[in-house]
Amino acid sequence: SSQVMGFAPLPEFLFSSHSKSLSRSSVRSRMSLKPPKAYNSLQKGALIWDPKPLQVKKIFEALKKGLNEYLEAHQAELDYLSGRHKDTKRNSRLAFYYDLDKQIRSVERYIRKLEFHISKVEELYEAYCIQCRLRDGATNMKQAFSLSPSSKASRESLLELYRNVQECTEDMCFIEGALEVHLGEFHVKMKGLVGFARLCPGDQYEVFVRLGRQKWRLKGKIETDDSQTWDEEEKIFIPNLHEKFEIKVTELRGLATILVGVVTCDSINFFSTKPQAIVVDITELGTIKLRLEVLW
């Protein structure tokens, strides 16, 4: 039914949730958690990285904007189908009428899922902001106590504030992991290199795309008619909060490889209902560009 309005439906996996209960009564025991390797050691009390509130805010705003775009598109589809539903009822075309009725119910269910998904993302971010403010407050108090004359009471207060900062930091890391569950997938398609005179028939290139631990390595060749053939055309990447796409292009000449360029690409603009055409300058002067298409 989503094809009626000509846009890609939001993947069902976006609406899945992962639950895990932890022993201490913290924010972690009241929300969905993602259990990747990056967070395993947190369960043992060891921190891997500091939370990055500014980056999380940017991703949250982009994610919410993209989800709202999907919601508006599905609402428009529902309005369109409802209009046809009324016209069909007047014309008494029963078979088509019931088919439309089925489509309308499907879109309505999808809209409810989207609304729940948006509310879940907002809930997670609200909890994240609370822990961030608590951590900032505890950090400021810890700094104030450290400047005061040392005493047993001040040392005990400093120790308690240190524990509070650690707990808030851990909670923020866990919320970041829980939020990543709701980021969906990026389907990245290879559209080829653009280089004008720099690309000649017979030239062979290797493109290496990395997002965190996820990697995509593909090889291509410039044909005699200036077309390009690549051994792979599409790769699915799971977005995360902290990593940018890193793209490396090398030219293959026999047994030798010549580095053409390395660039990074932020994923903020990829949270959209429409496929995003990406053209990045591989060389500093832009003599060779790489064309990709990203569908969220």
From TrEMBL:
Looking up InterPro entries in the UniProt record yields: FAM65_N, RIPOR3
Family stated for the protein in its record: Belongs to the RIPOR family.
Which PANTHER family does this chain map to?
A: PROTEIN KINASE PKN/PRK1, EFFECTOR, RIPOR FAMILY MEMBER 3
The superkingdom of the source organism is: Eukaryota
Pfam families associated with the record = PL48
Protein name (Swiss-Prot/TrEMBL):
RIPR3 protein
Which residues belong to any copy of the FAM65 N-terminal domain? Answer: 16-296
From which organism does this entry originate?
Answer: Chaetops frenatus (Rufous rock-jumper)
